[in-house]
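Sequence, structure tokens passed on for absentees:
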Amino acid sequence: MLKLLAAGATAFFVTLSSTAFAQAPSTMGPGRLGQADLAKLTDERIAIVNSVLQLTPDQEKYWPAIADAIRVRAQNRDARLARIAETVGKMSDETANDMLRDRDPIAFLDRRADALTQRAQDLKNCGRVAASLPNTQL
């Protein structure tokens, strides 16, 4: 049972990590997946975690809240990555001297703080959902 619990927890937290983590950059360009494709990928990842966990009927009734928390976090992550791609796209038109001359460290810190705040809210939401579960050994 302990191994099943460890495998389930590992699978749950792996789905929460970024899809781009530890991947080589693609030559296909930043717009290779649309919103529908990203949503389908997230749904497939959630289905994999659900099947690996092999939830009991008592646990299954709590699964929709967990799946929703994972979906919200994935949507917010995709939005952050889209904003980063947009920023990088704007910078690619500038030379290195222009970027250094026109940089705004305060705006950078504001953008970074906003991104970290959003990530923190997503993680708190996932924690809230997990904490609301009774002792189901999820």
Notes: Residues 2-9+33-131 form one domain. DSSP finds six helices and no strands in the chain.
